[in-house]
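Components:
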Amino acid sequence: MTDAPENNFTATPLIRKRLRQETMAKWIFFGMAAAMVVPLLLIIGYLAVRAAPSLSLEFILDVPRRGMTAGGIWPALVGTIYLVFLSLAVSAPIGILAAIYLNEYARDNWFNRVINLAVLNLAGVPSIVHALFGLGAFVYAARFGYSIISAALTLAIMTLPVIIASTREALASVPPSFREACWNVGATRWQAIRAVVLPNAISGILTGVILQVSRAAGETAPIMFTGAVFFKAVERGDLFPYYLDEQCMALSMHLYTLSTQVPGVMESIPYATAIVLLGSVLLVNAMAISLRVYLRTRKKW
Amino acid sequence: MKSHLIWKLLIGLGLIAPAMLVTSCKPRGDAGPKGASGGGMTIQNKGSDTMVNVAQVWAEEYKRVNPQVDVEVSGGGSGVGIAALIKGTIAIANASREMKPEEIEQAKKNTGKEPKEIIVGYDALAVYVHRDNPINEITNEQLAAIFAEGGKVTKWSEMGLRIPGGGDDIVRVSRQSSSGTYEFFREHILNKKDFKLGSRDMNGSKEVVELVASTPTAIGYSGMGYNMPGKVKMLKVAPKAGQPAVEPTVANTLNKNYPIARSLQIYTLGEPQGELKKYVDWILGDAGQHVVEKSGYVPLPPEKRRK
Amino acid sequence: MNNLPPETPAPAGSAVRGVKRPAWARVGERILEGLIYVCGFSAIVFVLGIFAFVLKEALPIFARESFSLTQFLFSDQWYPTSELNKRYGVFAMIAGTGAVTLLAMAIAVPFGIGAAIFLSEFCGPKLREALKIIIELLAAIPSVVWGFIGLSVMSRLIMQYTGAPVGVNVLNGGIILALMSVPIIVSIGEDALKAVPDSYREAALALGVTKWQLIRRVLLPAAKNGLLAAVLLGVGRGVGETMAVLMATGHAVHIPHSVLDSVRTLTANIAAELGEAPAGSDHYRVLFLTGVLLFTLTFGVNLIADLVVRGIKKR
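Structure:
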């Protein structure tokens, strides 16, 4: 529809000017789109180059040594995994059930509009306000103290909207006719959901869960005041170094302390930590995206 | 159907986590301030950013001495550590300033125990400038004029200095208000007056020195352990104009010639007991003091150490 | 919100007549549905809980005679730990948040909307998919990594190119925040442009307009509400961001006069000082009050954005 004028009619100067305008606009907008892609690549590239001297399997498996100025990031990595899984175990069931409610049970009335608004706003609450809440509610009021539990619960509430949103999307993509067919053979609402809706939406739900993992892994502010520590002595390669009523190290927090508080760190170590954090988050995200793309090609309706 | 597998995975995940929670919560004596009896335990240690690195190396080294004991270290500032001690949520508070009487009172009221102060080393608070800055010594009054609310000095030229590479406005680098370093500086240099607003308030001792290292017109204060030789200069400080300026060194700190030196202390609730006592004794022994020295601070003189 | 039309009759409560399901199945189903309802309402509980809790911790400050809300909002004197005269004024932090967010939006809005236009109007489906994936990845970068980039990479560049004495300042934070909020602006903006009916485009093209004219005269006016919502959500993101601005803006209590000044934002102020004051002290309560302020601010922005979007859907 943007074709150049056909040969059988001559472009007037006005038209030519407009076409030039159009091409220019196209390139400007292209430039703006490119301006978002380029920083991503530049940043990752730069970080990777600076990180290169430290990056190795050894870096991941080793514990921080000599006052955190050398060695690796094992305890921080394990701590992040603890936090992510625990928060996931809390928020995934709640989030999925909440999404089932919103998509399958809720009618369009004011009350459910308020719920929707609440989900939306929960996503918009600043992470530091979540931290305030976590500190006051879990650390002090619930008497969990500074602990993995407090931090994971704070993270769980914070990432709940992510999972609700993507699960709803997955459920909504199952055509209504599927449900109607079920009901017509006498299934109850829940039977229809279990037999038809969930199996068809499960992969989409999984995408949401994966996205939530990436979100939880990267957060710093909510765990800083609830359960993440500067340092904890952990054996190299120890898979279960933490109890849940203790505090743990976390990758995001480790990056923050390395770059603001530890003197004399080998130049490449903070960069390598950033790359590991960034790399795992992006990898997890890429997994979710490819799962989604794969699903879309497979769908039969 | 393939999705069954995914279901099982999800359900499995849902089951594992609570199981983790149940099994791993209480296998050991309650960690933290109440002190533990016997075997493995965790010592929670929080507070001063000045001391956080020393505390971290202690924790790292002590793991080798006594693998049964886990030490958790977090920073945040002396105020953070003391606040947590008052709440009774930690075992050791690191502080680069002394606990205030009202804080001790609060701790007693909250926990029923008297906080016990243990001096673990000394620190000279060094004044850092960029290595290209021609200044070599400074007086307490000059520092106050630069940093205190109402202080008149805002430009290097007002002190008769020209910074190579241009720039005249003094960039003041300070600490966030929860820092013991901040309070110590306020008390001893500013005479309890407040800081001029507009300083860059860094969240870590290291950040201060790094910012000074990259900014020719900057001046900042931080523990002497954070020196970056070749990139920044530590100024000699004179208590008053006309008096000799003193260099921040180990000797000058111990003999109290250096005007802005302070003790570094840890606080426990009540007299330390059991594993906590062993840990504190180790810190006060040669091994722990060696860590203090290697981190750039001033260790206790031999007669004050424990064996 | 519901993909069933509301008048669809609810399915029968029990199975087909004659085939009795075992009691445990029916009870189990009831219990499960109850759980689903509870979880469905949980979002409200959490949002209200957060607000109520933060407010509850903040409220006692109003009982203090020395505290005045006007001073809190409009004074730039922030001396929470002073020994002589404690003053709690967050105006400098409000100005800091405002300055950083404003600069971020000045960068992110044109680029974000430009990119959204490119995605929805100029680009082929393959390229669009690829770009959208990259934008999604951009959105996934953790804020502490952005902060680290600001602190260690951007600050050096800024000092080199502007001659500023300190590289962590409004400019640094603004650029970082712009990169962080651009993805949300692009994806909501693209949705808004897509929502413009194709018949508008066809009608305009049939009159012989060029694409540029189409965009300027037809699409932008038609999608302006959606684009507004996109910008608002970007603002919400900017105001609420913590770690990146904590590390990249220089953390000085100071009303900025130029983009090269260091500032402190509301969020960074809480992050730096929270926990310091013993729970229950005035300082602690003022920090929670700042939290209330932030919550209200982002809530308002999100609410307006939602109403704007809902307005579009209704049409």
